[in-house]
């Protein structure tokens, strides 16, 4: 298994010479966030374990366990992984035909995951053989044909993957940027809309209107979504439900579980034990 830090320095350069490069990476017992960067290829980040978050062109996406995020070519992004994370990354040439796939998290089927992991294992073995000078191994036509067939399946499966709404809705308006940045950094902040309006030197009515205009959500619902997506990352990193609830300022664990179940359709414990993770339920807007 390749170390995550080493991977950042080595894999991308190696991927430039291949049309499709897949590798598995593990974190180094500490949380890590890459600096802003972009790739000429599209990038798929599959979360096998732990918590993964990607900020892509200002939009923040949480990657649920056994889910993935697609980053189109030349999209500026950062990748954040928790200390216990294991990911599978695929770099796919822009001219293969997936560049038009929209940015975002996707549900990963068993077939898609199996193909990605098999390709990662095959390419890792090929790299080891090359380093050892065993070039004749790479001339095996049956092995090459098998790898190519797997690539074909991957390119068929990816466009069919279902999108999942694990993004924090962006506040675009310039006057709301202090609110957006602080809630991303401190999701436990529970200052009222009136308090924020005073801090931003606007009326509360204007604040509520601008948040609704940018996100389609009420202020309370938007903040709740920020908090729940943050909670997903913390829970995936190994925090207990009680710790996540307390960190976000919930008065009780049961209150947190109630909100979690309303938005994700199940309890935190069942969510992380289920083979197919839930996604945001599409309820009609509620009064806050």
From TrEMBL:
InterPro entries: AraC-bd, Homeodomain-like_sf, HTH_AraC, HTH_AraC-typ_CS, RmlC-like_jellyroll, RmlC_Cupin_sf
Record-linked Pfam families: AraC_binding, HTH_18
Domain HTH araC/xylS-type: 174-274
This protein's UniProt keywords: DNA-binding, Transcription, Transcription regulation
Domain of life: Bacteria
PANTHER family tied to this protein: HTH-TYPE TRANSCRIPTIONAL REGULATOR NIMR (PTHR11019)
Protein name (database record): Helix-turn-helix transcriptional regulator
Source species of the chain: Vitreoscilla massiliensis
